[in-house]
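Protocol step 4 of 6: structure prediction from sequence.
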Amino acid sequence: MKKIEAIVRKSKFEDVRKALHEADIDFLSWWDVKGQGTARQGLIFRGVAYDINTIDRIFITFVVRDVNLEKSISAILKSAYTGESGDGRVFVTSIEQSVRIRTGDQGDESLYDKAK
């Protein structure tokens, strides 16, 4: 099992969520985050200076079986891509154990129904 964490542009989040759904990944969590990249710039609008170094992003996390890893990453990469700096990152870590609280299912079976 692998845990996938992705940081994507807010404007691409719905595209990513739809692509993950099409890849049979329906169980995920996300939240709004702010970050700072390597680009440094400011903006002056109507005489007021704005710091635009902090960037609003969406942080997505979910756990998948090893067999679903590549299609999950591919779905994120294709749907979040704009070709510009700041498209985001994808991180993958190993999960040692998973237990479904309601049934006590462990391992891969705790992630999805046994039939999948």
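Step 5 (inspection) to follow. Strands lie at 2-9, 29-36, 42-45, 48-51, 54-64, 88-94.
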